[in-house]
Amino acid sequence: MSDLQRPVRTRFAPSPTGFIHLGNIRSGLYPWLFARARGGQFILRIEDTDTERSSQEAVDVILEGMRWLGLAHDEGPFFQMQRMDRYRAVVQQLLDAGLAYRCYTTPAELDALREQQLAAKLKPRYDGRWRPEPGKRLPPVPEGVAPVIRFKTPQGGSVAWTDKVKGLIEFSNEELDDLVIARPAAPGEAIGVPTYNFCVVVDDLDMGITHVIRGDDHVNNTPRQIHIFRALGAEPPVFAHLPTVLNEQGEKMSKRHGAKPVTAYRDEGYLADAVVNYLARLGWSHGDDEIFSREQLISWFDLDHLGKSAGQFDEAKLRWVNAQHLKMSPDEALVPLVAEQLARRGLHGLAEDPRSAARIGLFKDRCSTTAEIADWLSMYHGPVSPSEAEQAQHLSPAIRPALVALADALAALPDWTAAAIGQAFKGVLAAQGLKMPQLAMPVRVAVCGRAQTPSVDAVLSLFDQEIVVRRLREA
After folding, report:
1. Can you tell me which residues bind ATP (predicted)?
2. What is the pLDDT of residues 196-208, one digit of tens each?
3. pTM confidence score
4. Which domains are assigned to the chain?
């Protein structure tokens, strides 16, 4: 069946050995997008065979990050450690077919072999001393040595595939030694713990994966995995190896190099759709389109426009993308997100206030994140603290009579609207012989805690009337 005819099944297979960052999650975004674009299935698999470093906490962080970004999986999560019996059964299948064998070479012998090869300026590799061949005499089985199990890599020729990102890739089989597919068995076990490269193939085979979309650090694993697929009587899936995501210093994005958990961006006020938009453009393109909705992204996404060069993360660009998505978002949709930001500061009531959407609409075009919107809206939900410099500049004794006069005029308004507030300003300005900036700036500082805001009558109309009057009188 051709690539276009097969029902698409993709997977994301993170290791739960720490938090998941943007470079990791992009390797989950693209297979999710491809499955959604082709009406297929997206499978989540947790590769937790590194038992010393894997943790349930890391699994929870993976699930939380994917949930926030809206990367819902159709099947799973499947855990490799729960599938050990299946892997061992397939190892036994290869042993029975003569496609794998027990190797009793000790770690000390492997170290000595490696030193000899390096001294001879040869590439270190297992020399096949326990590989059974017609007419070959194997060494006697040593006592007390638990063997590993190695896969019999085909000899001669090459293995090749057409990668959807990198094009034709070919490896000579002479470069590939016999891969360990199971570690030494513990007492009472017939077969030890199977290894990563082997488990991945069994998983992809059992789960019917049609397209493997992953980071290009897996390219060197691919020829070995292709051989195992074929030994098990299956054709390998389509491979697409994504270039690395670099951090702002040009290094590979990683925890060691300052990468943040995906959920940190949620906490800092980024929108999930904006992060998805940004990440998609960090290695894929649709012409010159920079800003798009999730629906557009799904309808446009394919594997033919994946980039071949590394993408470099730029937080300033991410903030710009987020700002565009804030502008595109309905004000009502931002209310719970801004409420969450304010709740972190101990300020509550935004979600229940019917004026919240209007307040957000007034300020969101000035903001890059929901945290910045919360900065503005905090003046409606708690006390303000103007800086000493702004107080000294704008709240002089000379302006206080005008502020009191405005407070009296505003207190007398029967209708609390921007238009009515504007008329009250005009009356006080005329009576006091002032121009609008001379009064508006002090009013902003006294009521809003800052000298710069959108139109002052619009800003004040979204306060409670008594709060505005009180702050003016107390200035």
Report:
1. 255
2. 999 999 999 999 9
3. 0.91
4. 9-80+197-245 (3.40.50.620), 85-193 (3.90.800.10), 262-380 (1.10.1160.10), 388-474 (1.10.10.350)
